Amino acid sequence: MKPWPHNTTQLPYTKGSDTSKAAADSMESRAPTIRKEVYDFIVSRGERGATDDEIAASLNLRHQTASPRRRNLVLMGAVHRTEERRPTRSGHSATVWIATPGMDVRRPRGRPPKAPTNTFSRKLTVYLTDEQDSQLARVARDTNQTKGQVARRLIGVGFAVGMHGEWAIPDNQ
């Protein structure tokens, strides 16, 4: 089995570090359950959201356990950063995260397998603002698709983004 990032079913670890690999292996069976608990907690907080410190304290988790599960949720499009900051138990400022209710977070989507050569032949990396990512996640949720599926459709169909960030199909399509 190839190590992460090539194997998307395996938790990430630092290459060459036996302790990092052992820690990732020890979390493999528990990570989906903890990820779901973290997600449910953030959803329960509604618009108030939660900091990593609040997540760890409320769920009785170590920060080193809670933060990576929240990061998984961000990568899945289920949790989003806000502009709000709140103090942690130690008095430091921390980012507040909010969740998109109704997401299936039991399995991370991870990096998709390489496409067959007869379908897609190019990889595209796109950097989005938080607002663009949030809007893409909203469209994906509303259409029951992944963000990748929505992005490919936007490129293929020729959607346009209006002055106020709304998605629209141009009249000439």
Termini gap: 45 Å
Class by helix and strand content? Answer: alpha+beta
N-to-C order of helices and strands = HHHHEEHHEE
**Strand percent estimate:** 5-15%
CATH topology of the largest domain: Arc Repressor Mutant, subunit A
Total DSSP E strands: 4
Shape: globular
Q: How would you describe this protein?
A:
The structure is a single chain. The longest helix has 14 residues, at 31-44. The protein has 2 domains: 18-99, Winged helix-like DNA-binding domain superfamily/Winged helix DNA-binding domain (Arc Repressor Mutant, subunit A); 113-173, no CATH class. It is built from 6 helices and 4 strands. It is globular and about 45 Å long. Mean pLDDT is 77; it is low at 1-9. Helix 2 (31-44) packs across helix 4, helix 3 packs across helix 4 and helix 5 crosses helix 6. Helix content is 40%, strand content 12%. A two-stranded antiparallel sheet has the order 1-2. It has 173 residues and is α+β, with helices and mostly antiparallel strands. The termini are far apart. Strand 3 and strand 4 form a beta hairpin. The protein has helices spanning 18-27, 31-44, 52-58, 63-76, 130-142, 147-157; strands at residues 79-87, 93-99, 160-161, 167-168.
